[in-house]
């Protein structure tokens, strides 16, 4: 996650409750990997410090120089501190602690002393084996009706809504409100916006004047998302002028649940085993690290799709595959999974490279593939699914719709550099892939499995190969990076992936630390 | 020009004049949009340019400049004329630039294509940010037909004229520059560019262009960044602009540079950087570029050094390493995008594939490939005359022509016979017994093809034409042997061949030269061992088999021996049951493998008299150890994979490589010969709205009434308002219903209803309201009355035709309907009208330079009547089989075309008599009457028709004509197709008024006609055709060196341009018995469903030695089935829905479930059935042809996706076994 701009470093520090000296920020910005450096500084800074000073940065940067292949932020025992002028803290790093060669596995049994009895893991919304749609027209209609019913329910209490057909019959000038799916968004010749809302009775056009405060929100709208509009009917009752827009949204009152003990979950995705660009070394470093005492609290591993590179995902893909056989890809992935400590609970969902249907919701892998990956006994569930780890709910979704959100929304609202901000919009719309007919593919089922019915504590996606996290109304949104180096395609479109990172979430505090393995 | 040529053209023009007179008289009388013929005759290119542009004075100036300078220079010269007002009547500077640019494009495209009128929308003057003015040129999609050079030059001319009239350069804003780059990439993705500049290159060009390139939106896809720019009207890709920048400027920079250098007024120094590829921004370079540059140049030096070193090494290596035979590189490009049903005939350079033979048959050249007709039948009729093939080299595609003077294919039959098939009849007879096609025979490509494609010559097959020159070079008096009636030099007896080779020290005759280079040295040694064990037998059938006695060679049955014999393509019989392999022509063969046949006296006088003949023993002259290292390791891909050197060491004579170059190819498009109908077909361009039902039946419309109270036949229609000049009556017809005088369009201002007159440019604008005037209005027309009175006026009854189809509405600018009378007569003769009122017939183009009366279904008398007096050898024309040189504008119609022309002629005769009140013109009884009649040839994307004359007919489904005729229409023969129209049909029924008022509407319409072809003014591709009777020996030797074709001296047509000989002397090296041989129609057209075609395709791939059937199956799956499945599945999960009742479309399924418009039933547009139609077939094919796991797994994954989407997990479809 490149954070070149000093302004963003300041922003990041502020969001974590620190002030900073100007020189410190400059140093950070000049560091080879400003983000990693920043994390390092925060890792090392004394607990009581409020201002990040230049010497904090210097210390952090100097220790970084000695860091091996294993992540620079690796937490180690703090027994032997170097004779350093900087006050050290218990979580600080010390170069002497590290194995100078870096990658050798640490098979220390004692380091992993988890008590399985304390764990709990529940799955909600797994539709594997529940795909009842047969691709009929009526299936599609049911999905969208279900969407309107369930997301509409979150809005109907907030406005005095009327059906579309009833609004047409109301006298001009009335105050009206409606809950519906966005059917169409158009700009008018004079620069205003015309938004057609549709409910189970029909459609009604709503005009957003370009100079109104809501005009800015129009840029965020996607077709087929559910929202409520309030406004005034025109004289001929043919159109209404929007005074307010309401989204299903995450209530501001939302308070996340946390685990009762200090336990961590690693949130990763996009492993892409089988690709020539799969970063086996980084993965091994990650697996090795999980065996170290530093990782002793990591008891859960969530994998948000694209375990393997797949076959036939794009034309002539076979020429760029390291493993051409899809089953061998999963076997290789399974081998890589075996390196993960056996006591870590693993939950995985499929992605667009995996050998399941592309249309969403995607059921979990079939028996044949489950068999291949059975050694570690992972929980394999559908994309999307909600996983609750010791009370903390995590909505896992692979993230194909992020491409669309980023393409449709203005750059300042959603971009590949800040994938978590694109995720905020999905949370706000309470739907992981609202727009139909565009980039995202929909498989019609009896209900809309893509709705975010319950507000999760953590929203975890991948797909765009960029690392980013942040909080939206106290929901932690994390887009994990990937384990695949830059591909030729990514090079051609100038995407620089964040490869070899593992965000680690403290389930008791929902704090995130990022481990780097590349 | 020779007097006979002059006579020929005079004759055509006289004939044309006669028809013109008739047409002019008819037009004066009828109710056509114009009272005169609307296709002006252009005698030369200058005329065409002027006519297409409609700018007076251009033709004269072009003629003045033509002799003095090149066409490009003339375009620049004309730009000056425009700037200074000497040519064209333009008031504004923008107008001057526009005139100059259009003229330049017209000039460079020889006034044939529509690009100058359709491809350039307008030129306007806008303001730079610093307040200076710049020129903006609006391009449109049809600029594509101008080609890169003309596109690029149009920019240069615009810039030059801009400088001359004193306008500043364009300074692109940064966002505009970025927009260019993004837009070009978008256009390339959406539509595709021949050359798509990289973003950096596009930005570099955009930054430096002195004029702004703009244009109309051509696609739906919009750019994502750089939208809503002030000076760019659209967010979609502007196709015309993208073409000009990409295929024009970026691709043709060196060509433009040639002209910018000579112009003082303008300066394009950046072109050099563009050519060199230095498009780093100057700004960047100033900052930190210096160091980087240094480093990179250092690197470059190092690289160069290393290269040198490597080269040096290579040089040394080649000296040490054994050299190999000369071979071309394989190219797989032609196999790309293989589709189901279009078979592969040979994989790249594959053994058993077509063997390259050089030469030009008389129906050949100009992007065609000569194939033996027997081969056409043996590939299960997939190849027919005119079928397009995609080929490995020298070009990309070619039209197939039948040539039977080349070697036919060799097949292995189910009974074990291996036979070469040189007769198409034999091919049909044995076709069912063919087990394997071991060799496809020869494939004729002419030298000019290599020149045109600038392709290095590929090593030539050893053929008769080469051998006979080798023979002469060895000191033999070839002429004497040729004159000896007992000797057939081309097909000698085996003993003769051996004798010539040994006696005269010339290489062995190709007839007995086998494909030794295709077997390995090891296989050769094994074969020799087998021969050593073999014996000579009398087969007892009494035949002498050309050996001078009744003897054959018998080898023991053995798979490797059989393989070797099949690979070297020698005729033989495999009889494994009797443990023998029999070879008839064994003498040259055994000598080639190093054996001496020796006669030994039969032992024992006890034998009967007739069997007392000597027995023959084969004496091996060498042992395996005798082979030199060179021969042992000789090879191309692997050491020792080529036995030719071994043969040369053991044989008593020289043996050349028989077929060093094989050419891969596959089927492209099938040939075409069918009438051109609009869809649906239309008899009359008379509008009837929805009243005629989906059939657009005029008779139905005449009875149609919306409600009970409406008068039947009265329909509301959008038509143009016309007003009578004398009595003022308002009508929609071209003649006043009251006084029969001509009417003119009645333009009004839509705001103030004031009457308006069009200005000189044809624009109609209201001065007061500043609005465009129009004459189009919606009015009630009594179709019933129109229909009945039209029937009456031509004296026809409704039962004269099955159905009379009109159009829903008119798309022309002033919406003048065609008189229904014409439609009635068209319907009567079952011909339909194209959008411009003409009746057309499409045919695939093929070239022919000399013809025989016998193959054209005409007699000598008819030829003589057309002015053919001598055959190609200068002998008087007396019998049907003599070849005569085709005159440039004479064409051969396919049977279908002739039939269609006859019906058209009947229609024209009726039209003249019953509508125009004149005498009939054609009065044809049978198709022989068509001979000598004039037609128009007209190609898509062009705007000029070329006059042609019918000379005869062919059963092939193609239009054979002189290559110059095709080139005049700007076609070549690689599968292109275009149309013919009967002359008087074009003259009488064509009107510009009918042409659609939209971009491209003027394309494919005869805006002008060329009455005679000037060889200098046609597509210069035709000039590269070779016109000799024999290629010299040096040529064949040069092919072994893979020389540049330009370095070989063979006369091509270009050399005669501008001389008296420019219309004659099109000699050929190979004859063919008939220009229509092999199947008349490709199996692709006769087989029914796609599945049938694919089955036949895969079946054929199994039979062909040169084809890897697994690869074919894989490609069909990868390039056809999988994209189809994936595409449909994607479409399914993002589909639109449509109302079954009213047709309304919805982006997403309506929540009401029913249609929001009409309450009708809404349904999906992509169903399960259309998604998975190929699934099972694909899986089956993958399985049967043993495709690789990658492909199979893709299918498996897809199949599971389909199941997951279309099947209910809880209610899986179960088979009967679940219940047992």
TrEMBL record, chain A:
Region annotated Disordered, chain positions: 75-118
Composition bias type Polar residues, residue spans: 82-94
EC nos: 2.7.7.7, 3.1.11.1
SUPFAM superfamilies attached to this UniProt entry: Metallo-dependent phosphatases
InterPro entries noted in UniProt: DNA_pol_a/d/e_bsu, DNA_pol_delta/II_ssu, Metallo-depent_PP-like, Pol2_small_arc
GO cellular component: DNA polymerase complex
Domain of life: Archaea
Coiled coil: none
Domain DNA polymerase alpha/delta/epsilon subunit B stretches: 266-463
Catalytically driven reaction(s): Exonucleolytic cleavage in the 3'- to 5'-direction to yield nucleoside 5'-phosphates; DNA(n) + a 2'-deoxyribonucleoside 5'-triphosphate = DNA(n+1) + diphosphate
Assigned keywords, A-Z: DNA replication, DNA-binding, DNA-directed DNA polymerase, Exonuclease, Hydrolase, Multifunctional enzyme, Nuclease, Nucleotidyltransferase, Transferase
Pfam families for the chain: DNA_pol_E_B
Biological process according to GO: DNA catabolic process; DNA strand elongation involved in DNA replication
Subunit comment: Heterodimer of a large subunit and a small subunit.
Recorded family membership: Belongs to the DNA polymerase delta/II small subunit family.
Function comment: Possesses two activities: a DNA synthesis (polymerase) and an exonucleolytic activity that degrades single-stranded DNA in the 3' to 5' direction. Has a template-primer preference which is characteristic of a replicative DNA polymerase.
Name listed for the protein in its UniProt record: DNA polymerase II small subunit
Automatic annotation (TrEMBL), chain B:
InterPro entries: PolC_DP2, PolC_DP2_cat_dom, PolC_DP2_central_dom, PolC_DP2_N
Bias (Acidic residues) ranges: 281-323
Molecular function terms from GO: DNA binding; DNA-directed DNA polymerase activity; single-stranded DNA 3'-5' DNA exonuclease activity
DNA polymerase II large subunit DP2 N-terminal domain span: 7-276
Keyword Oxidoreductase listed: no
Coiled-coil features, chain-numbered ranges: 55-82
Residues covered by the DNA polymerase II large subunit DP2 central domain: 327-756
Pfam families hit by this protein: PolC_DP2_cat (PF24846), PolC_DP2_central (PF24844), PolC_DP2_N (PF03833)
Keywords assigned: Coiled coil, DNA replication, DNA-binding, DNA-directed DNA polymerase, Exonuclease, Hydrolase, Multifunctional enzyme, Nuclease, Nucleotidyltransferase, Transferase
EC numbers for this chain: 2.7.7.7, 3.1.11.1
Gene Ontology annotations of biological process type: DNA catabolic process; DNA-templated DNA replication
Catalytic activity: DNA(n) + a 2'-deoxyribonucleoside 5'-triphosphate = DNA(n+1) + diphosphate; Exonucleolytic cleavage in the 3'- to 5'-direction to yield nucleoside 5'-phosphates
Positions of the DNA polymerase II large subunit DP2 catalytic domain: 799-1093
Region ranges (Disordered): 281-329
NCBIfam families according to UniProt: polC, PRK04023.1
Subunit-level organization: Heterodimer of a large subunit and a small subunit.
Family indicated by similarity: Belongs to the archaeal DNA polymerase II family.
Chain's role: Possesses two activities: a DNA synthesis (polymerase) and an exonucleolytic activity that degrades single-stranded DNA in the 3'- to 5'-direction. Has a template-primer preference which is characteristic of a replicative DNA polymerase.
Entry protein name: DNA polymerase II large subunit
């Amino acid at each position: 996650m490149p954070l070149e701009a000093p302004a963003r470093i300041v922003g990041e520090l502020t969001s974590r409750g620190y002030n900073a000296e100007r020189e410190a920020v400059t140093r950070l910005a000049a560091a080879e990997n400003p983000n990693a450096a920043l994390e390092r500084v925060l890792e090392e800074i004394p607990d009581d410090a409020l201002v990040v000073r230049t010497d904090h940065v210097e210390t952090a940067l100097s220790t970084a120089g000695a860091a091996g292949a294993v992540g620079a932020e690796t937490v180690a025992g703090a027994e032997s501190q170097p004779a350093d002028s900087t006050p050290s803290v218990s979580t600080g790093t010390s170069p002497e602690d590290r194995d100078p060669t870096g990658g050798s596995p640490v098979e220390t049994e004692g380091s992993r002393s988890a008590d399985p009895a304390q764990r709990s893991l529940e799955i909600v919304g797994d539709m594997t084996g529940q795909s009842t749609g047969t691709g009929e027209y009526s299936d599609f209609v049911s999905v969208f009706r279900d969407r309107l019913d369930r997301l509409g329910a979150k809005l109907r209490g907030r406005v005095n809504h009327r059906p579309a057909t009833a609004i047409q019959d109301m006298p001009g000038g009335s105050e009206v409100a409606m809950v519906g799916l966005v059917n169409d968004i158009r700009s008018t010749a004079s620069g205003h916006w015309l938004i057609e809302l549709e409910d189970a009775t029909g459609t009604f056009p709503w005009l957003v004047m370009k100079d109104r405060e809501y005009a800015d929100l129009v840029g965020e709208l996607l077709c087929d998302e559910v929202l409520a509009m309030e406004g005034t009917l025109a004289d001929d009752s043919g159109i209404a002028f929007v005074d307010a827009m309401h989204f299903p949204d995450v209530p501001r009152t939302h308070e996340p649940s946390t685990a009762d003990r200090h336990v961590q979950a690693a949130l990763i995705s996009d492993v892409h085993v089988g690709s020539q660009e799969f970063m086996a070394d980084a993965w091994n470093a990650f697996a090795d690290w999980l065996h170290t005492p530093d990782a002793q609290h990591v008891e859960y591993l969530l994998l948000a799709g694209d375990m393997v590179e797949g076959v036939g995902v794009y034309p002539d893909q076979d020429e760029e595959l390291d493993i051409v056989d899809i089953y061998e890809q999963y076997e290789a992935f399974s081998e890589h999974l075996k390196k993960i400590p056996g006591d870590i609970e693993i939950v995985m969902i499929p992605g667009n490279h995996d050998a399941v249907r592309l249309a969403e919701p995607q059921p979990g892998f079939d028996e044949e593939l489950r068999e291949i990956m059975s050694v570690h006994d992972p929980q394999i569930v559908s994309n999307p699914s909600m996983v609750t780890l010791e009370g903390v709910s995590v909505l896992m979704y692979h993230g194909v719709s992020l491409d669309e959100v980023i393409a449709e929304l203005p750059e300042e609202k959603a971009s590949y550099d800040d994938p978590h901000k694109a995720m905020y919009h999905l949370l706000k719309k309470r739907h992981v892939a609202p727009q139909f007919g565009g980039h995202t593919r929909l498989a019609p089922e009896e209900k809309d499995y893509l709705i975010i019915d319950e507000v999760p504590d953590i929203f975890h996606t991948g797909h765009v190969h960029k690392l980013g996290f942040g909080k939206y109304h106290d929901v932690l949104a994390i887009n994990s990076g990937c384990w695949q180096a830059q591909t030729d395609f990514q090079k051609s479109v100038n995407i620089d992936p964040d490869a070899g990172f593992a965000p680690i979430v403290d389930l008791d505090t929902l704090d995130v630390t990022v481990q780097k393995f590349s | 020009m020779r007097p006979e040529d002059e006579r020929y053209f005079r004759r055509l023009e006289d004939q044309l004049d006669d028809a013109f007179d008739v047409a002019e008289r008819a037009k004066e009388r009828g109710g056509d949009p114009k009272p005169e013929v609307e296709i002006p005759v252009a005698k030369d290119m200058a005329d065409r340019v002027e006519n297409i542009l409609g700018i007076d004075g251009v033709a004269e100036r072009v003629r003045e400049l033509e002799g003095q300078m090149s066409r490009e220079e003339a375009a620049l010269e004309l730009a000056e004329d425009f700037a200074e007002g000497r040519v064209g009547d333009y008031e504004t500077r923008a107008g001057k630039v526009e005139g100059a640019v259009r003229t330049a494009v017209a000039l460079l495209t020889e006034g044939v294509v529509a690009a100058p009128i359709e491809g350039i929308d307008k030129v306007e003057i806008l303001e730079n940010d610093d307040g200076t003015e710049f020129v903006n040129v609006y391009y449109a999609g049809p600029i594509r037909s101008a080609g890169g050079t003309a596109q690029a030059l149009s920019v240069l001319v615009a810039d030059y004229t801009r400088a001359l009239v004193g306008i500043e350069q364009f300074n692109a804003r940064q966002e505009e520059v970025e927009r260019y780059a993004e837009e070009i990439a978008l256009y390339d993705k959406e539509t595709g560019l021949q050359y798509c500049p990289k973003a950096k290159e596009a930005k570099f060009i955009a930054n430096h262009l002195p004029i702004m390139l703009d244009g109309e939106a051509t696609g739906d896809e919009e750019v994502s960044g750089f939208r809503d720019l002030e000076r760019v009207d659209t967010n979609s890709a502007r196709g015309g602009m993208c073409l000009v920048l990409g295929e024009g400027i970026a691709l043709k920079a060196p060509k433009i540079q040639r002209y910018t250098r000579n112009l003082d007024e303008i300066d394009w120094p950046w072109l050099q950087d563009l050519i060199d590829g230095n498009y780093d921004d100057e700004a960047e370079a100033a900052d930190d570029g210096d160091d980087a540059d240094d480093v990179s140049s250092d690197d470059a030096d190092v690289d160069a050094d290393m290269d040198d070193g490597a080269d040096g090494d290579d040089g040394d290596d080649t000296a040490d390493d054994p050299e190999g035979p000369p071979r071309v590189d394989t190219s797989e490009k032609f196999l790309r995008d293989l589709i189901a049903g279009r078979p592969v005939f040979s994989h790249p350079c594959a053994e058993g594939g077509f063997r390259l033979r050089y030469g030009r048959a008389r129906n050949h050249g100009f992007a065609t490939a000569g194939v033996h007709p027997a081969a056409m039948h043996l590939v299960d009729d997939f190849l027919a005359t005119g079928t397009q093939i995609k080929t490995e080299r020298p070009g990309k595609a070619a039209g197939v022509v039948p040539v039977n003077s080349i070697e036919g294919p060799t097949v292995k039959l189910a009974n074990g016979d291996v036979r070469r098939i040189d007769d198409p009849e034999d091919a049909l007879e044995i076709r069912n017994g063919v087990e394997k096609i071991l060799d496809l025979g020869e494939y004729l490509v002419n030298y000019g093809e290599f020149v045109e494609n600038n392709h290095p010559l590929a090593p030539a097959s050893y053929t008769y034409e080469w051998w006979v020159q080798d023979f002469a070079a060895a000191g033999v008096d070839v002429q004497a042997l040729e004159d000896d009636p007992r000797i057939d030099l081309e097909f000698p007896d085996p003993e003769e061949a051996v004798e010539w080779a040994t006696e005269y020290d010339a290489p062995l005759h190709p007839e007995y030269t086998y494909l030794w280079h295709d077997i390995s040295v090891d296989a050769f040694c094994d074969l020799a061992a087998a021969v050593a064990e073999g014996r000579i037998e009398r087969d007892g059938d009494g035949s002498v088999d050309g050996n001078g006695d009744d003897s054959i060679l018998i080898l023991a049955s053995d798979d490797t021996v059989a393989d070797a014999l099949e690979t070297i393509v020698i005729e033989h019989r495999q009889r494994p049951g009797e443990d023998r392999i029999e070879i008839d022509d064994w003498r040259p063969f055994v000598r080639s493998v190093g054996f001496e046949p020796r006669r030994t006296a039969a032992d024992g006088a006890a034998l009967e008299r007739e069997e007392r003949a000597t027995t023959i023993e084969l004496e091996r002259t060498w042992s395996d150890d005798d082979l030199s290292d060179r021969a042992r390791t000789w090879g191309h891909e692997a050491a020792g994979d080529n036995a030719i050197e071994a043969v040369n060491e053991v044989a008593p004579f020289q043996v050349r490589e028989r077929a060093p170059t094989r050419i891969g190819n596959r089927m492209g498009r099938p040939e075409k010969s069918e009438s051109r109908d609009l869809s649906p077909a239309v008899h009359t361009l008379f509008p009837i709205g929805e009243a005629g039902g989906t059939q657009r039946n005029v008779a139905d419309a005449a009875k149609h009434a919306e409600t009970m109270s409406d008068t039947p036949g009265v329909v509301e229609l959008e038509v143009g308002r016309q007003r009578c000049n004398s009595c003022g009556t308002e009508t929609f017809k071209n003649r006043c219903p009251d006084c029969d005088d001509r009417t003119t369009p009645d333009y009004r201002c839509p705001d103030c209803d004031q009457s308006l007159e069009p200005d000189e440019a044809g624009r109609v604008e209201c001065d007061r309201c500043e609005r465009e005037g129009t004459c189009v209005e919606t009015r009630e027309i009594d179709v019933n009355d129109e229909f009945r009175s039209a029937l009456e006026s031509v004296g026809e009854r409704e039962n004269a035709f099955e159905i009379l189809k009109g159009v829903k509405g008119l798309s022309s600018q002033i919406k003048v309907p065609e008189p229904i009378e014409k439609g009635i007569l068209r319907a009567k003769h079952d011909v339909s009208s194209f959008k411009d009122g003409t009746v057309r017939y499409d045919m695939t183009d093929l070239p022919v330079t000399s013809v025989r009366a016998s193959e054209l279904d005409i007699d000598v008398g008819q030829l003589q009547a057309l002015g053919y007096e001598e055959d190609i050898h200068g002998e008087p024309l007396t019998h049907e089989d003599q070849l005569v040189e085709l005159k440039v504008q004479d064409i051969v119609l396919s049977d279908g075309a002739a039939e269609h022309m006859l019906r058209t002629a009947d229609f024209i005769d009726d039209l003249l008599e019953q509508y125009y009140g004149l005498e009939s013109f054609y009065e044809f009884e049978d198709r022989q009457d068509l001979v000598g009649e004039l037609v128009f040839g007209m190609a898509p994307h062009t705007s000029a028709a070329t006059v042609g004359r019918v000379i005869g007919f062919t059963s092939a489904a193609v239009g054979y004509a002189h290559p110059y005729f095709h080139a005049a229409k700007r076609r070549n023969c690689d599968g292109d197709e275009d149309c013919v129209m009967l002359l008087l049909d074009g003259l009488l029924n064509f009107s510009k008024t009918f042409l659609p008022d939209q971009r491209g509407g003027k394309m494919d319409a005869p805006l002008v006609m060329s009455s005679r072809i000037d060889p200098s003014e046609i597509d210069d591709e035709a000039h590269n055709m070779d016109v000799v009777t024999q290629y010299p020996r040096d040529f064949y030797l040069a092919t072994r060196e893979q020389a540049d074709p330009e370095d070989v001296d063979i006369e091509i047509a270009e050399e005669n341009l501008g001389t008296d000989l420019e219309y004659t002397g099109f000699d050929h090296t190979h004859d063919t018995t008939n220009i229509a041989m092999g199947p008349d129609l490709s199996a692709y057209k006769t087989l029914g469903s796609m599945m049938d075609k694919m089955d036949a395709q895969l079946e054929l791939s199994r039979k062909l030695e040169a084809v890897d059937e697994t690869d074919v199956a894989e490609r069909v799956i990868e390039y056809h089935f999988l994209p189809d499945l994936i595409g449909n599945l994607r479409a399914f999960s993002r589909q639109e829905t449509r109302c079954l009742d009213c047709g309304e479309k919805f982006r997403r399924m309506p929540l009401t479930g029913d249609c929001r418009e009409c309450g009708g039933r809404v349904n999906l547009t992509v169903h399960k059935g259309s998604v998975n139609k190929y699934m099972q077939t694909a899986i089956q094919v993958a399985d049967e042809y043993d495709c690789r796991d990658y492909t199979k797994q893709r299918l498996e994954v897809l199949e599971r996706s389909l199941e997951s989407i279309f099947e209910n997990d809880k209610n899986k479809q179960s088979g009967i076994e679940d219940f047992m």
